[in-house]
## 1
Amino acid sequence: MSIEVKEIKRVFRYNGIELPDIPGLTPQAVRDVYSAQYPELISAEVEAGEVAGGVQEYTFRKAVGTKGGTADDDARLAALKAAVAEEAKGRQKDVDAGLAQALARRGMAARARAWDATARDNAHPVPRLRPVSEMLAPVA
């Protein structure tokens, strides 16, 4: 009994399209070559199928999901929605309560008035005197 060696033909499929094989490249390298024509293949997974009849089929599957998403995004989104709902109802959040406490501290009102006066003074700056052409040095 002798061992027979048969060549296996590779077939690449993406989105119902059969893409020609590029000999000498790994399946990931073939995906990278075709990503120039199909940009969504950049993050696609390569799934190798069973060998049947001397043909191995590789399928490119698009990565589905949200960019930069994590497992706790749903909880964070729910917390944000709850905070927005509370604010819409006019309830005071912890941050607002902390700000109110800081503003109630002794001396804070005087500092706030000083900053307000500074802002008002800088709103209308004093016009600067501009030299007339006779005052300028001659250009050599």
Note: Helices lie at 27-34, 73-88, 94-104, 108-123.
## 2
Amino acid sequence: MVQCFLAKEEVEGSIPFTRSKFMSSNSQKIYNALQLIPKGKVTTYKLLAEYIGINNPRVIGNILHKNEDGNIYPCHRVVRSNGTIASGYAMGGPTEQRKKLRQEGVRFLSNGNVNFSYSLHTFSS
């Protein structure tokens, strides 16, 4: 049995970040970036991938699907580039993801997509 030892680190903005020594570099970058997305905002898999320097946004989805703590690493704040919610949200499905986003103040259009005019976080602002 492999034991996973945790190390505490500080990231920009003094947000505490706990990481596994066995976590990949990409995973660490993604989880750090998730903590930069404020409540009431979302980003896209594509924008997150560009911010991290990953060529394929699907890598983001694969890593987020393994997230074990949505309170520390708010993966529910990542949506598709067209504003839709992915069907594979690992922490309760798309209905639960939409519920969490609404509770945080994310705005939706009448077609059910996220209203990017009000709720998009781009990592540049």
Note: The chain has five helices and four strands.
## 3
Amino acid sequence: MKIARSRYDVFVEFICLLCLFGLVLYLMIAWPNIPDEIPGHYNTAGEITRMTNKGSLIVLPVISLIMYAGMSIIERFSQIWNIGITVTEGNKEEVYRTLKNLLGTVKLLIVVNFSYLTVCSSRPKPLPVYYTPVFLFLMFAILIFFIVKLVSLRRK
């Protein structure tokens, strides 16, 4: 099913691309000032548990770009989505729109998360102690919000 682009879709794509482009630009400008050793891993409390060379900083934007591209491709092929409810003529458009919004929102959170991690790693400081709980809260809140919305569409 072809799902028309909404303003929300355009907004999410714009912010994702802005983050990805901004991240590459940031790394290009900041590269000479980034120390040779940067955090390579953080624990759940945000403490640095392993240091690595700054060349490994390139991995995070590459993973972010791969995940962005993968999720963008998945968004375009609604026939591969596992919906979990019966799709009827009465709820078809809303179900697919809800799922597309879910995928776009998760994609945005992932891109912003990887961008934030890259910037934090370039300044070898621990992550804020609230980083992991906030990220997990946002991810689960997004999933719960859209799943509840999807289940409510079952009745239509």
Note: DSSP finds four helices and two strands in the chain.
## 4
Amino acid sequence: MIFKNHSIIILLLLCLANSNLLAQNQAPRQTSLRTISGTLTDALTQAPLPAVDIVVSNSKPSIHTYSNLDGVFKLLVPNTANTLRITYPGYTTYYLILPNSDKHFNIALKHAPPQEEVKVPRCFYPQMPKP
């Protein structure tokens, strides 16, 4: 009886060890990456634009970076990604179609057209007491 219990335990341990080995032999699915870099400047003055938000569209989890003080950015992007969204306050949003290989871009962002004056309903701000 003791040998039967030991043989069952040994058999179970062998099965578990074998399943762990099989799981380790399966290679994880790897997505190849490409490097997208660029320099972001103002279209009128050619001045570098720091802290521009660069986001890979439809990426989960979100893949994004910001340009440095010289307007330069560098981003590792999966081959499945096809568009970057580049945004900066006061400028129009720029969409960049990504190539299939590593590439450096020089991008000049244009100022956004002036917005019409937005009227804020008075109910959001309490009236100040008159002195």
Note: The helical segments are 2-25.
